[in-house]
Amino acid sequence: MFPDQSQPPDTYFRLLGILKDDPRAYLQFPLAVGKKWNFQYSFSGFSPRGGRTTVTRNVEYEVTGIETVQIPAGKFETFAIQRIDYNASGGGNTIEYDYHYSPQTKSTIKLKWKISGLDSGQSDTELLKYTPGKAQDKFIQSLRV
Q1: Distance CA 92, CA 62 (A)
Q2: Measured between alpha carbons, how far is 83 from 38 in angstroms, rounded to an integer?
Q3: What does the alpha-carbon distance between residue 109 and residue 73 come to, in Å, rounded to a whole number?
Q4: Shortest CA distance to 85 belongs to which of 73, 98, 100?
Q5: How far is CA 106 from each of CA 4, 19, 77, 134, rounded to the nearest angstrom?
Q6: Paired residues of 100 in beta bridges
Q7: Are strands 94-102 and 107-116 parallel, antiparallel or unpaired?
Q8: I need a labelling partner for 111 at 20 to 30 A (CA). Which of 84, 104, 124, 133 fits?
Q9: Strand partners, 53
Q10: Cβ(3)–Cβ(9) under 8 Å?
Q11: Which is higher by pLDDT, 133 or 81?
């Protein structure tokens, strides 16, 4: 179980310095409905049988659609992205993520994740406030003209 379920599980691995995957794999631009990509990462951890072991995880992504999302920060058009993170050799935990990436904010504005398997947990995270910069204000105004 992770101490703070407001953060995705791999956040803790990063803080501990044991997750060494390529961060560019999280989003691959340009995004388009139907786009798929994957990667693999390994980290050293403790074995349930004692001692340390190396765990290899597979991660699969798919842009599943374009959705309008209403959150506390406002209403945004987003790319809906599903991510599944699982043990390459079977067993262990499976982590399912649902992202909503907004081109307007250039960020993930909504994230839901759920762990199933040996551990369990889930969390929902949403952007609470968004204030566009001056350049973005001008861009949005130019779209309305």
Answers
A1: 22
A2: 9
A3: 9
A4: 98
A5: 25, 24, 11, 15
A6: 80, 110
A7: antiparallel
A8: 133
A9: 45
A10: no
A11: 81
